Structure formats: structure tokens, C-alpha cells
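# step 3/5: fold
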Amino acid sequence: MRRDEFDHVIGAAADVTGETELVVVGSQAILGPFPNAPESMLRSMEADLYRRRAPQKADEIDGSLGDGSRFHRTYDYYAHGVGPETAKAPAGWERRLIAVEVEARVSSRQRVVALCLEPHDLVLAKCVAGRERDWEFAGEALAHHSSTRRFSSGGSTTCRSTTSTAATFACASRPRPVLNLR
């Protein structure tokens, strides 16, 4: 999923739900703060998200924009309605969400904000989730961070944090084969 597709699915979710703030907790949350994230981190075709004020209404998102929906069949990407419990991020992650205003859809004048997991919280959440694709994402993120010493946003914004050491430790100490960091 590219940033324009991210904006599209977030805008569509806002239209479907009437919500102007959507929390993005899956791997595509990287596209909020870093629209030019490395291609290797953008393999997923879904955006895991929920309504900030009514997370229990994930069915609205899944029904209209979810896997196998008309939206998915039309665009080849989709929204996956989830809840806050989906994010296995470190304590306090909700206070560190990064607000990103999404381009308004042509059919709407409402201001929509995607609240995205902070990149270090995202990497740690992927390590905790522990699926092979999560380890691959975390490895790509760490490799990119190690090679640049920052996540590059393509603009003047960079993300630096001491939590990167914690992310490196958490991912390196997983009970699986060593990450392929190239």
C-alpha cells in the first residue's frame, strides 16, 4: 500500500463511519509519519484501523471496506476494522500516536486525521505479535533505521528516539532464527 492508497482507505473509512479520527495500528501506520517508507515495509494491502471514539464498531469498516468487499475488489487494498487491543505496543502507546491529516476526498469536506502508531512502538508491537511477516517488517525497519540512523520521511521530519535501542533488543532477543537484516 502506498501513501495515496493509505489516504484513500482512511478517507473512505471516515465516510463510512462518519468518524473524523481513525487510529491506524498495523504495519501501514508507518505511512502516516513516513509517506516515503521503504518499499520493503509496504507489502501489506490492508490498513488495520478503528474509530477513535467507537472502536467497538469495527464491523462498519469491515463490512464496507474489508477483505473481499467491493472496495477491495475495486482497488486491491482494503481496511481491516480492529480494536485497540490489536496493538501489542508498549505501555503509553496511545499517548504517542502521530496525528496525520489525510487529504480530503472529493466527495467530502470533512477534515480527517489518521492517528498512527509511532514507528518505534510499531516495531515493538510487531516483535510482540511474533508472526513471520511481523519479524520481517521489524527487521526491515531496523535495517532501514540502522542504515540511515533515522526513518526518512522524504521531508524535513525525522524520527529519532532512544526507544530504538529497546526495539533492537526486543527484536534481536526473539525466540526464533536471527533476523535477516541484510
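# step 4/5: annotate
The longest helix spans residues 132-148.
# step 5/5: archive (pending)
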